[in-house]
Specification:
The chain is an alpha/beta fold. The chain is built from 36 helices and 15 strands.
């Protein structure tokens, strides 16, 4: 055995590295061969194969018993026996044919789409739900799955109500518990009977389903036999009418049909012992039984005639029944082409024994009533977990069942129209034929065949619904996408959904308490139509996207068929009932948003995701045509984060600021650099990415995360600036934090990296935002109730400075802040005119802001500036020349830093400055002297310089360019502090770095001086292009 293992190891030695993560082909095939799809439900099979599960013996069914018969039984139900004759009579043969053809076409197209989806991979339990969710994603799958579940459950209620209607109207009217004492209470009594009997049947059926699916199938076969016998009886009856029509006479008064429930003899008088007597009918229309009694006007003027209710297939009655006969509610059923004399109408027409229509009829209403009779095409796929080979059985069984039932429905319409008199067809409850079931009158050998057959048919269909619905709910619950129904995923040891069955019975009971079959039916139509629509959509999307995984075994599909099916479903929804359609869509929409908001994140490789990718690709190709117009420009951010040694974000507030600036709009790429090589840092990169994404979730920053590994930090940032984004979706603005520790010697690269980043963003023509003191910036939970956002507009950089405060104020944190714009006037500027021009410019930009022009006169350079410059240059020289040990360098740098800080922070009291060179010169400034020095007039400029150089000879050797820059920084800082020290945020133009790279560390010092004493500063450097416009 060991030798065999060794041999195998050597045989595949080249691939031994892969063995840990990728299984051998032989073991993979072995797993797939032993694959069982029942116990797993709808849990992803990839995740499930590795866990060992004990085999559970479950009955397995083939195409005929598992799919064809359940579909046949669910489709042939209540409507065929109880309503189809009435639909034919009301709409006429032609329009009825159109109604049935539309509905059957809709289900056939859906079945073709469903077959394609069902044969594209293994379909576990949950059939239709599983197909839709894996094709359209968890949101659509959950929404449509729950809608379909509700539809199936209410269908169960409808079938049960149909069962009771047959029982109490046609089989045993005496079994009614509630009796109507007078005519008005008849409907109410019937509804109460429905409620009592319905509840009993629900409990009985739930027990049968609980006992096991095997017994349901055994019972279902018995029920189905009854249905098939009934249909054979109808066809046999039709053939018999050709040579021997059955005797069902109808009594007409003029052209009006009379209800035979109230009288026996169809005549006004009868001859008995040579004596003419009035009949029961006479007494119903006259005030006494005497010949001279006062009678109804219409009764007096018209004769009573008797015609055959079923003249037979050869009688030519089809011609009369071709056209529709829609009517208002409460109108009398009248025979066309029958002579009648209209009299002055009696007010008490309601009390006469006429056959009345119980509801107003029109074409679209009949579509709504008929459609539930073609539903049930999913009965096989709902129980896909119990099939031997779902991929083969579902398409074959479903399409065969739809073809069979469509033939039955379409042929029945023509045959009913050809055999039965129109007035009987329009008589919904068979009142003109002694309360018989109208279809029953046609059947051979006896009407009872149909009555019993239809009773068992509806019973069986209800049982099928009650079996399928809990399985569907269990499948949705086990997926975990709708958190509040997860409890219904549990069941018995063999997978039977116990809890789901209880809920289904409960919802069914609601349908039964409604008690009116006509009220329940349109609700299911909507839910089923919505489900079918999405099955078609799923197939069309997958076919059009040509996803590599779309390889159905069923080949007879095309996207145009799916699209036609989807359009037909949508049209039928609105034809049946536009308001129910809107309500159903609203329910589905609410579930969709709930799953999107609360549901688990699932990646099922669904078609909607594929559609999103295709749409994204198309949009990206469109966007890349050129740069966006100024009107469409918004900052697309690349946020550069620093990570600590634990790979956690150092400055989380940078992401808070990002979400405040973006408010979820546009592109945000959050980037960071790890130093090293990618092979070594692969796992660390994943960890860093997880940390950054987690923080992005907390801070509600919507965007993408990109971690780059590079040998040097500087190169990594350069790579991000160059290559982050894709096509037209590239960043145009870089946001980073100010390197707080740039003065520390151990971190001497940080300022170099920073200055190089500034240069690279300029080279890439991107804007740059630098947040100083980022840890003082507000979190997303804070709210500023007052304060200002101050903009210091010194040079025009395309309008970024104007746009940023406007974007920030869209967010709750900054909403209450006011915007103030400061600009600086030089000696020869007209400050009053500047203010007017700026106010007009802001007016055209539609921005609300206070405007202030600050005058900055050319005055002499203060001793303080010289001292600052001297400190800066000495520090720079020292770091370059002195090769000290690390500790000494730290100590030295810290000493200079301390003195430097002291020199600016306490100039009012005393600033003692000592250089680190051997000679030590000390100076003392009083406040008066300092202020006077700062604000000297230009006239005394020359003498001032001489005095200053006399004070401290080293100042004469300073680089005059540095002195001038420091002068600007100090003066500007003074002005900004004076106006904006208490502002919530200060936005400043960021000066560019020097062209000569030798002065980079001086540049950092200038920026430090410029922003000293301010809490929150955003340094802004525009990209040079205009980003804000006055035009619409």
């Amino acid at each position: 055995m060991d030798r065999g293992n060794k041999y195998e190891g050597k045989n595949m030695a080249l691939f031994e590295e892969e063995m840990d993560s990728n299984p051998m082909v032989s073991s993979l095939l072995n797993k797939l061969a032993n694959y069982t799809n029942l116990t797993q439900g709808v849990v992803e099979h990839e995740a499930d194969e590795d866990t060992k599960r004990k085999e559970v013996k479950v009955p397995r069914m083939g195409t005929f018993i598992g799919v064809y018969l359940p579909c046949l039984q669910n489709i042939l139900g209540v409507i065929l026996f109880l309503r189809l004759t009435w639909i034919v009579g009301t709409a006429g043969v032609l329009e009825s044919f159109i109604i049935v053809f539309m509905c059957c076409a809709c289900t056939m197209l859906t079945a073709i789409s469903m077959s394609a989806i069902a044969t594209n991979g293994v379909v576990p339990a949950g059939g239709s739900y599983y197909m839709i969710s894996r094709s359209l994603g968890p949101e659509f799958g959950g929404a449509v799955g729950l809608c379909f579940y509700l539809g199936t459950t209410f269908a169960g209620a409808m079938y049960i109500l149909g069962t009771i209607e047959i029982l109490l109207t046609y089989i045993s009217p005496s079994a009614a518990i509630f009796k109507a004492e007078d005519g008005g209470e008849e409907t109410e009594a019937m509804l109460n009977n429905m409620r009592v009997y319905g509840t009993c049947i629900i409990i009985l059926m739930a027990v049968v389903v609980f006992v096991g699916v095997k017994y349901v199938n055994k019972l279902a076969l018995v029920f189905l036999a009854c249905v098939i016998l009934s249909i054979i009886a109808i066809y046999a009856g039709v053939i018999k009418t050709a040579f021997d029509p059955p005797d069902f006479p109808i009594c007409l008064l003029g052209n009006r049909t009379l209800s035979k429930r109230s009288f026996d003899v169809c005549a006004k008088f009868t001859e008995s012992n040579n004596e003419t007597k009035t009949t029961t009918l006479w007494r119903l229309f006259c005030n006494s039984s005497l010949h001279n009694a006062t009678c109804d006007d219409y009764f007096s003027l018209n004769n009573v005639t008797e015609i055959q209710g079923i003249p037979g297939i050869m009688s030519g009655v089809l011609i009369d029944n071709l056209w529709s006969a829609y009517s208002e509610k409460g109108s009398i059923v009248e025979k066309k082409n029958q002579p009648s004399v209209s009299g002055s109408e009696d007010i008490k027409i309601g009390g006469r024994p006429y056959v009345f229509t119980d509801i107003m009829t029109y074409f679209t209403m009949l579509v709504g009533i008929y459609f539930p009779s073609v539903t049930g095409i999913m009965a096989g796929s709902n129980r896909s977990g119990d099939l031997k080979d779902a991929q083969k059985s579902i398409p074959t069984g479903t399409i065969l069942a739809i073809s069979t039932t469509s033939f039955i429905y379409l042929s029945c319409i023509v045959l009913f129209g050809a055999c039965i008199e129109g007035v009987i067809l329009r008589d919904k409850f068979g009142e003109a034929v002694n309360g018989n079931l109208v279809v029953g009158t046609l059947a051979w050998p006896s009407p009872w065949v149909i009555v019993i057959g239809s009773f068992f048919s509806t019973c069986g269909a209800g049982l099928q619904s009650l079996t399928g619905a809990p399985r569907l709910l269990q499948a949705i619950a086990r997926d975990g996408i709708v958190p509040f129904i997860q409890v219904f995923g549990h069941g018995k040891a063999n997978g039977e959904p116990t809890w789901a069955l209880l809920l289904t019975a409960g919802i069914c009971e609601i349908g039964i308490l409604i008690a009116s079959l006509d009220s329940v039916a349109p609700i299911l139509s909507m839910f089923f139509l919505m489900c079918y629509m999405f099955v078609n959509l799923a197939c069309a999307v997958q076919t059009l996207l040509r996803t590599p995984n779309w390889r159905p075994r069923f080949k007879y599909y095309h996207w145009t068929l799916s699209f036609l099916g989807m359009s037909l479903c949508l049209a039928l929804m609105f034809i049946c009932s536009w308001y129910y359609a809107l309500v159903a869509m609203l329910i589905a929409g609410c579930i969709y948003k709930y799953i999107e908001y609360r549901g688990a994140e699932k990646e099922w490789g669904d078609g909607i995701r594929g559609l999103s990718l295709n749409a994204a690709r198309y949009a990206l190709l469109r966007v890349e045509d050129g740069p966006p117009h100024t009107k469409n420009w918004r900052p697309q951010l690349l946020v550069l984060l620093n990570l600590d040694c634990e790979h956690l974000v150092k400055h989380p507030r940078l992401l808070s600021f990002t979400s405040q600036l973006k408010a979820g709009k546009g592109l945000t790429i959050v980037g960071s650099v790890l130093q090293g090589t990618y092979l070594d840092k692969c796992t660390e990169t994943q960890k860093a990415e997880e940390n950054v994404k987690a923080l992005m979730g907390v801070e509600k920053t919507k965007g993408f995360c990109q971690i780059v590994v590079s040998p040097s930090f500087r190169d990594g940032i350069s790579h991000l600036i160059q290559s982050a984004g894709l096509g037209g979706m590239k960043h145009n603005t870089v946001l980073m934090a100010w390197p707080q520790s740039w003065k520390r010697t151990e971190n001497h690269f940080s300022w170099k990296n920073f200055v190089d980043t500034v240069r690279e963003t300029t080279a890439a023509q991107q804007a740059l935002l630098v947040a100083k003191n980022i840890d003082l910036f507000p979190t997303n939970q804070e709210r500023f109730t007052e304060g200002n956002i101050d903009v210091w507009w010194i040079v025009h950089d395309g309008g970024m400075l104007m746009l940023l405060p406007f974007l920030l104020r869209q967010h709750k944190v900054w909403r209450k802040c006011k915007m103030r714009i400061f600009t600086v006037a030089q000696m020869d500027d007209n400050s009053i005119q500047m203010k007017k021009d700026l106010q007009m410019f802001l007016y055209h930009l539609r921005l609300n802001a206070e405007v202030e022009v600050v005058e900055m006169f050319e005055n002499d350079i203060s001793a303080f500036t010289y001292e600052k410059t001297l400190m800066m240059e000495q520090r720079s020289q020292m770091l370059k020349q002195m090769q000290l040990s690390k500790n000494e360098r730290e100590r030295e740098a810290q000493l200079i830093h301390d003195r430097n800080t002291a020199s600016h922070s306490t100039p009012a009291v005393k600033a003692s400055v000592a250089a680190s060179v051997p000679e030590k010169v000390q100076m003392t400034w009083t406040k008066e002297k300092f202020v006077a020095e700062k604000h000297k007039n230009k006239e005394t400029n020359v003498s001032g310089f001489k005095d200053i150089f006399n004070m401290k000879p080293e100042w004469g050797n300073l680089n005059q360019s540095n002195v001038r820059r420091m002068h600007t920084a100090v003066k500007l800082n003074g002005v900004v502090l004076n106006k904006s020290q208490h502002a919530q945020l200060v936005l400043l133009n960021m000066p560019g770095p020097p062209k000569n790279r030798k002065g980079d560390e001086n540049y950092m010092e200038f920026l430090e001086v410029l922003t000293e004493g301010l809490d929150r500063v955003l340094l802004v450097r525009g990209s040079g292009r205009e980003v804000i416009t006055i035009y619409s």
